[in-house]
Amino acid sequence: MNQLLVIDQVSVRRDQDGRYCLNDLHKAAGAARRNDPHDWLRLKQTAELVEELSDTGIPVTTIRGGKVQGTYVCKELVYAYAMWISPSFHLKVIRTFDSVTSQVQNSAPSFSDRIQAGVILLESAAKTLNLSNSSKLGAYQKLQQVAGLPDLMPHYAIDAPADAVDGSSRPTQSLSQLLKSHNIRITASQAYQHMAKLGITEQKTRPSRSGTNGVKRFWSLTAKGCMYGKNITSPMNPRETQPHFFESRFPELLRLLEATR
Question: In this structure, are strands 60-63 and 70-73 parallel, antiparallel, or unpaired?
Fold first, then answer.
């Protein structure tokens, strides 16, 4: 049960299907005997209204026993009951519903607003982290799925050096793999440090409970570095980048590294 309406300091309970408690409404109206909800339910006009509403679900139900016992009705019957009691109480119920609805709309962003915020966040992250086209595509595909949109995104993206003009992707490998395959006897960490001096890589941070002083550090290719590789999202954490380097540009990158050693 959750509480949605408060009328004259009386909380009107709801059942698990969203119906409102008539007994609580009776209390909010002053609990006068002449306004007994069971008398109202026995009226011919009420019975006809319940019959009309039966196509939309179960308009009236009664819970017997326990803390939540009472008669629960749909929103349309709440209005009808309030109108039967008095014009002033009817107006009070309408205004309360309108106020609650307005608060919900103002406090909770719409689904389209959340999707738009997701797109803005993705674009900002892609620009800040210099993400590769394939990583951005993967993120857009996930956003597309969450939004329930048709599969309109392409199924692949071109990952190539920033100055490539032929429109073809280039194979990449991790720095450790390339250093090993070229028999370069320095560690990936040392190579990243040298590349940082050249403005090819930079170290970024993110909050992390397992990091030093609550901070986790990771490497990322700069805009200049995208001539030699691409940033993919780390499989360990999507908030981190993991540089991969183009095989075709690695010999050129090695020459630059040699100059800094």
Answer: antiparallel
